[in-house]
Amino acid sequence: MMYSSNDVHNNNDEEDGSRILTMPNLCDTQTKKIAWGVFAGAILIAVISLLATSLNKVESTEFGLEYNVHNKQLDEIAKGGGLYVGPPGFEFIKFPSTFVTVDLPSGTCVSRDGLRVEFSVTIQYQMPKEWMLPAVMKYRDFDKWVRNCVLVCIDAEEGR
User: Fold this and answer.
1) How far apart are CA 127 and CA 96, in angstroms?
2) Cα-Cα end-to-end distance for the chain
3) 58-89 tens-digit pLDDT
4) φ and ψ at residue 74, rounded to 5 degrees
5) By C-alpha distance, which of 89, 156, 95 is closest to 125?
6) For the chain, what are the domain ranges?
């Protein structure tokens, strides 16, 4: 902003004759004060919104792969529990880091001797951090991966 010589005020109150130059008040009217307040409020809201959408949390019992929904990019390294900063709107594809127990449906079968045998199967698994990227690339998320694992276990249980 350029100031003319009329905008700069001279104060000759000094006894030694020196001059003090003062700048005009940029908020000299009520309308300008309101405008600056609205502008500052809008900037503050935008900064808070960007910061809030740039934070995401992974629980201590989970692993997460960072996924940028805008660029469709998947991070190669799984992250443990904590609060992470990323691009606005990013997500985590999460898998449990603890052991997961699955009870398969009970069933009956016939032994070689011709006896009817009732059985129940419970499996327990844990996804290692290193296997998360290949699992996500193939199955996209935890639910589809579990569904596939359970189907493989049922097929193995039935002897197919």
Assistant:
1) 7
2) 81
3) 999 999 999 998 888 889 999 999 999 988 88
4) -110, 130
5) 95
6) 52-158
